[in-house]
Amino acid sequence: MSRLDIRCKVELPVSIITRGNGEKGGSETRARFTSLSLGGGFIDHTPPFDEKKILGLKYDLPKHGEFEVLGEVTRSERNGFAARFYDLNRDAKLKLWDYIRENVEEDLSCPYCGKDHAQKRRICDGCGWSLNIHSQDYIVTHEKESFLKRIQTKSDDFSIEDMYKILNFVDVQVLGIGKNLDINEEFVGSSQGILNVFSMIRKVAPTDIPVLITGESGTGKELTAMAIHERSQRKNKPFITINCAAIPDNLIEAELFGHEKGAFTGAHVSKTGKFQYADGGTIFLDEIGELSPQVQSKLLRFLEDKVVEKVGGHEGKKIDVRLIAATNKDLKSAIAKGTFRKDLFYRLDVFNINLPPVRERGEDKVILARYFLNKFSKEMGVAQSFTTEALDAVRSYDWPGNVREIINKVRRAVVMSKELAVAPADLGLTIPVMETETLTSLKDVRNTIEKQKLIEALRHCNNNISKVARVLGISRPSVYSLRKKYNV
Ligand SMILES: Nc1ncnc2c1ncn2[C@@H]1O[C@H](COP(=O)(O)OP(=O)(O)O)[C@@H](O)[C@H]1O
Ligand SMILES: [Mg+2]
User: Fold this and answer.
1) Cβ atoms 20, 423 nearer than 8 A
2) Does 362 lie in the same domain as 350?
3) Residue 289 belongs to a domain with what CATH number?
4) Would you state the pLDDT for residue 37?
5) What is the pLDDT of residue 402?
6) Which helix (H) or strand (E) holds 355?
7) What does the pLDDT average to over 401-418?
8) Which of 197, 222, 399, when mutated, tests ligand 1's pocket best, judged by the most ligand atoms within 8 Å of its CB?
């Protein structure tokens, strides 16, 4: 039977994080992937882990940065084990695919079924999959092509109820039948700051203007860029991410704009740039503050006339790409220092979305932590919750790494925790201690909260007293007396 995913041989270091078991706590060990596909990989590690064990896997993909995913051991051998990936989102898949494509062995046999061909073929006459793996939209095409087969390989285990559930999921969640699909439900939060972000995404998505997304690392800049793309008319065209900080200065220009054969030492063949691959879609330039002055001016030229020119080339090519840029740097001070072009900044800053750090999102901290605890628990088939101390610790911690740190700490806690309730220590957090001078009487606390909730409810209900009473679950006279008490 043919494979559904191309596998490549690699030597890629990986950290394995294991969940505690009975008396034994969890641990982190170093190993390496010896093969990798979009579905999982083989890890050289002795002693091997038992089948079905769930592990946290952390690895660095050259050019793309660090990844942390959950994996399940599907096969155990003497020198290692095969693991299947969980929770790979589309973006992570595309990055992984970039890496696999670069590492796959180029010979004449089909990477899916192994059939030997006498010459290079576009379609395998053994299994029928297309083999044009260097075309940019290849992976999307292949996933579509193989989709029914993927379902089919699992369908023997479906009950008739499962099938109804799946069809219903396709109708409601995928096609939006009978449901008012709003902002992607994966984008979690209800603080005022994040609601403003949602509203800006909705406003700017259908237009073609460039967007500059600012905010600390891990606040959701890339997620915002994807959300804009997915709500635009370009959504069925490529969304291409380039992390300007991850690619060396001397390579980035060729990576973005392509190069001609012989343009520089080592340029044996001509190469298409990411801008051209993104034609019709969106290009997301992450960490734009890291671009060299030379690439900055080339980018400015692109924004002015929408033409890209390969390195070493002589004629430009007109391209229809929407640019979204992001940075965690203060570009204004980079301009003052002379490291960032002012004219480029004003071209990019036409529409700015600033993502507030998590520490300024109030109760969103807890909402996010709960969301990811739920998600990872479900994926691992355990029912985990937070202890009250853990929730206090989540609230009082500053989360300098923002949402990414929440994800990593919660994922690790789900893997490492020995109990069903996640404690502060599982999250690597300490129990917040109340300082004596900040201790207030319960009555004060109650009054403060009561007043706060009253103000919020009045605002939410446009001062409609009946509605406020309903929302707060009290009578109308009580609403009046509370207003009087707090003078609001
Ligand atoms: N509000 C949110 N709700 C759910 N997941 C989020 C949210 N914000 C960020 N994430 C997730 O956190 C991780 C880091 O976000 P990312 O967009 O890569 O941040 P940045 O680009 O600002 O460093 C990603 O896995 C992203 O999906
Ligand atoms: Mg980022």
Assistant:
1) no
2) no
3) 3.40.50.300
4) 93
5) 97
6) none
7) 91
8) 222
Distance from residue 350's CA to the centre of ligand 1 (Å): 23
Q: Which of 68, 186, 197, 223 to probe ligand 1 with, by most ligand atoms within 8 A of CB?
A: 223
Count: domains in the chain: 4
Same domain for 231 and 330?
Answer: yes
For residue 453, pLDDT over 90 is answered with no
Asked which of 72, 89, 106 is the last residue of a domain, the reply is 89
How far apart (Å, rounded) are the C-alpha atoms in residues 211 and 244? 16
Domain check: are 200 and 323 in the same one?
yes
* Residues 259, 350 within the same domain: yes
- Contact criterion met (CB below 8 Å) for 139 and 93: yes
Comparing 319 with 173, the larger pLDDT belongs to 319
Q: What is the 3-state secondary structure (H, E, C) of 191-247?
A: CHHHHHHHHHHHHHCCCCCCEEEECCCCCCHHHHHHHHHHCCCCCCCCEEEEECCCC
Q: What is the pLDDT of residue 21?
A: 59
* Top-confidence range, 26-35, 150-159, 366-375, 450-459: 366-375
For 83-129, write each residue's pLDDT tens digit: 999 878 778 888 899 899 888 887 788 888 888 888 888 888 888 88
Quote the CA–CA distance of 473 and 118 in Å, as a whole number.
Answer: 76
Whether residue 14 lies inside any domain: the answer is: yes
Residue 456 shares a structural domain with residue 390: no
233/321 same-domain check: yes
Q: How far is the CA of 203 from the centre of ligand 1 (A)?
A: 20
8 A C-beta contact, residue 224 and residue 213: yes
Regarding whether 286 and 268 lie in a shared domain, the answer is yes
Is it true that the peptide bond before 477 is cis, omega within 30 degrees of 0? Answer: no
